[in-house]
Amino acid sequence: MWNRRKEEEPAPRITSPVPAPSDLGREGIPMSTMSHRESLHATDTHRVASSAVIGKSVVIKGQIYSREDLVIDGEVEGSVEAHENKIVVGPNGKVSAGVKAREVVVHGAIKGNVEAGEKIDIRREAKLVGDIKTQRIVIEDGAYFKGSVDIQRPDAQKQAAAAASATRPAAATSPAAAAAAATGAPPASTTSGGIPIEVKK
Amino acid sequence: MSAPVPGNTDVPGAGRRSSNALDQFFHALRDRSGLRILDLTGGSQANIQYIAEQGHRSTQDGLPRALDDCFATGGAGYFENQSDADRLNRFGSMTLDHEPGTFQGVLAWDVLQFLAPPLLEEVVVQLHRITEPGGLLLFYFHADDRIVELPAVNYHIVDRRTVATTAQGRVRPIRFLTNRAIEQLFAGFTAIKFFVTRDHLREVIVRR
Questions:
Q1: Which of B6, B57, B60 sits opposite A141 (nearest CB)?
Q2: Which terminus of chain B is more solvent-facing, meaning fewer CB atoms within 10 Å of its CB: N or C?
Q3: Which residues of A touch B64 (CB under 8 A)?
Q4: Fold of B15-62+101-207
């Protein structure tokens, strides 16, 4: 009985030192305080190793931009964007934010609109309240979803992308763009029809 | 092509059935596209895919899940809890909180038979509010007055005439409604049409 009681005690808090600001500037620092690999779906575990992870005792309020796959098992309030990558909301994850990504997998809870460029996968225990825009949707039976679904056909997306690129012909031929192409560096700013477009470095 | 229907079809409540009302529902909408269809299953991939294939946009609202979350546990009982003010407030915040006249079609399935007055009438009022004039609503009602409870199931559209049900592993008490009671329930709507079936379900289409 006593041994059992000891096992039930909460795990000691991780007391790792606060990372230096220079460390925070680096990409891909895993923010994990848990053994999340065990709690995620088997098909997602291979992604975890190469993903940034927000652990289950982490709370973030603000905007998250990610250029790598992201696993959220904590709480996020604000917005989450990983346009070219995959976002997995783990079983402990609670996201009160708009989510934009190439692919979204939901085991936990999302309250907010979701734009998944390619696919959204809502698993059995998931709870999603918000509107979805995606090309493909997978909902396991038992998942809770409240909101509208806008299925976007790949052709429509291509047309939209083509229309968007057609509106920027001047940018491609502008001196700044030509200089950037020659040097391989992005231009600081360029123009399209006389309207300045800031290009973030 | 329809989406694969999930779940084990060997458990009570699971299976497939032909639905003339479903056929009529989408047949009546066949000449229009871009309509907003509310599906009260609350997350059926098959339904989302079928509705999208018909050129419409689906909205999912998990009213049955809200029923279970708000009224199934604790309190005096499933139907008695539906008179509890706190539980009703929570229920109202979880479901049917859409803008007036949003939908041209509502797939309500069998949810009304799990409601007791006055919540039953209030839900019908809310469905009337959120449906556009002329919009269609599809309902199923159990026709056997000896049955007092039913396995909770989700309805998945297989094709225009076939619906698959998957059991959710719960049982809900039901209230039997006669055809006359159903007519009175929808007295504020324009028209009501009953469909004869070979099993113990009455299928009903109501025009707002």
A1: B6
A2: N
A3: none
A4: Rossmann fold (3.40.50)
